[in-house]
Amino acid sequence: MDFLSLDPLLKQALQEDLGRGDITTEAILGMSGPSRGGAIRAQAVLLAKENFVLAGWPIFVRVFQLLGEVEAQTRFEEGAQVEQESTVGKLSGAASVLLRGERVAMNFLQRMSGVATQTRKYVKLVAHTTAKVLDTRKTTPLWRSLEKYAVRTGGGFNHRLGLDDGILIKENHIAMAGGIGAALDACRSRMNHLHKIEIEVRNLEELSQAINAGAEVLLLDNMTTKQVQEAVKIAKGRCVLEVSGGVNESNIVEYAEAGVDLISLGILTHSSPSVDLSVSLHKYDDVC
User: Fold this and answer.
1) Annotation marks residue 221 as catalytic
2) 103 belongs to the catalytic site
3) 36, 170, 196, 226: the active-site residue
């Protein structure tokens, strides 16, 4: 992932938080005279308050770098399991930079690590099967690349990044086209041989229609596990099967064991809780 390409988003986030300036930091660091604010150096220590999967450390550091020069270090790779009470990493630099960037940097890291942690949980649940865990387009506006990166970091896979990189015929498309066969024909007539066409089906009758019409990938929408088991028998390996809708921690194993290829979960990006982290700052002289 090209983290530098995210600079406009990070700058916008900083502007949202800083506004016309950090009046608290300016007041505190200005107590020793107007020239002292930029001279005071500090170290920030990032602590884990729960177990989690790390995702977004480069983003965390980059937020501070956009405000000034910092030195950063961590012993964890992206995707590493971090245990509660561990020191995740340390940053050194101007106290003004660390204080102004702390909240924005934490928001990115906590959110992305939350997505990775949630993803890892679901990936582990189905690890004994051949099913892959995918995300969806149910992402936070403008955060899609970050959240989908976090899904990959947690061991999952990405579905479409946007409407322009994959064909997925859904219920409303079928309604506008006038039927499953018509929708498939319309897409085939416009797309080249490099694109596979996925189509959503809601029941076993639609499943058979789609297979007979030559569908390559079927999205089994909100089907029960029993319906999915039957769908696998009907498909007989003639197309890729994806399950979506109604999947959660209590039933994902049953869906995976039914023999589907893909399981997509909106919960990975729209409902993953941010992880609990804290930052402690110390004057540089106090830690040397």
Assistant:
1) yes
2) yes
3) 170
Asked if 46 and 271 count as a contact pair (C-beta separation under 8 A), the reply is no
Q: Which of 121, 132, 137, 138 is catalytic?
A: 138
Tokens 């979960």, residue located: 265
Greater model confidence, 29 or 132: 132
- Count CA atoms closer than 13 A to 117's CA, side-chain side: 21
CB atoms within 10 A of CB 62: 20
Which pLDDT score, from 0 to 100, does residue 38 have?
58
Active-site annotation holds for 170: yes
Average pLDDT over the chain, rounded to whole? 93
Q: Note the CATH number of domain 123-270.
A: 3.20.20.70
Give residue 288's pLDDT.
47
- Selecting among 221, 230, 254, 257, the annotated active-site residue is 221
Residues 69, 63: Cα–Cα separation, whole Å: 11
> Does this chain's domain 3-117+273-287 share its CATH topology with 123-270?
no
> Is 185 an annotated catalytic residue?
no
Residue ranges of the domains in the chain? 3-117+273-287, 123-270
Task: Give 194's pLDDT tier (boundaries 50, 70, 90).
Answer: confident
* Nearest of 142, 124, 188 to residue 12 by alpha carbon: 142
Choose the catalytic residue: 103, 121, 132, 152: 103
CA nearest neighbour of 128 among 237, 264, 257, 226:
257
**Of the residues 102, 135, 198, 200, which is catalytic?**
200
User: Is 11 a known active-site residue?
Assistant: no
CATH architecture of 3-117+273-287: Alpha-Beta Complex (3.90)
pLDDT at 191: 84
